[in-house]
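Repro:
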Amino acid sequence: MLHKRVTATALLALLARTMFFVLAVWFFHHSVLAQSSDANPQPSPSPDNSSSEQSEQSKHEPRDPVENADQYKSKLTFGIYFTPGARVYDLNLRHQFGSSFTGWIAGFYDPKGTKLIRIGGQYDYKKGWLHLVPSLEVETTRALSGSLYSELGSGKTVAIVGVARTNLRAFFDLFWDPGDSVQLGFSHKLSSYDRISAYTIFDVRLHTQQQNTHVVWRYKLNANNGITLDGLFKSGHTETGEFIHDVGIGVYYDRPKWFWKLYYDPHVNFTNQTMVRSGIGLKF
């Protein structure tokens, strides 16, 4: 048993280091190319509109390369999460099968503690004013979570309603918001790419009064670059019983074939630790 655990840990560490090297080389290579040339925009339907609107838009409105990133079916993300005196690694591969189902497999590696693999999937259903996204994930630690996210409305502004549930086992790498929760908010589309959203995710099971409120602004800088800013406001009881109020922020930088992200999260998961999460990824 000990040999198996050591072997699995060594493989995860080797995989993480290898993927980090590959991503770093790829990132540098394409950053140089991005400075010397721009991709030509291709017409493509917007995934946020109805089928008839998509058809008309694809005929008359060519989309910029950063918007056409949705045509890629796969996404590989390598993340490093920092807390005082420690860091952990996360490698996630997602793939869309057909038009509605997305699956993923990921590995989480903590040199001082938890090592795990997780698999999950979600189904995307959209018809008229109703958009539903049920999801399910399981980890090798036997942690299990399920959620149902929805957007209600057919215009530029939609209501956000969601619910999530776990089997109360610790999720070391998945939930940065309360896990057994309800989500309420709205989203307003400013353009085919630009969007502003605001929502609150709050505990409804453990009586912690924990809640995270996000204000998210997505903005296209130019044809090849987009940025998303995520303001976080949190309050509730920590694991020691202290009631806290705190503020965090996240930045997601989007390119047609790659992206990076950086988050500052004080009292992460309502502990007494501050976490900085960094990540870089490929779309293909």
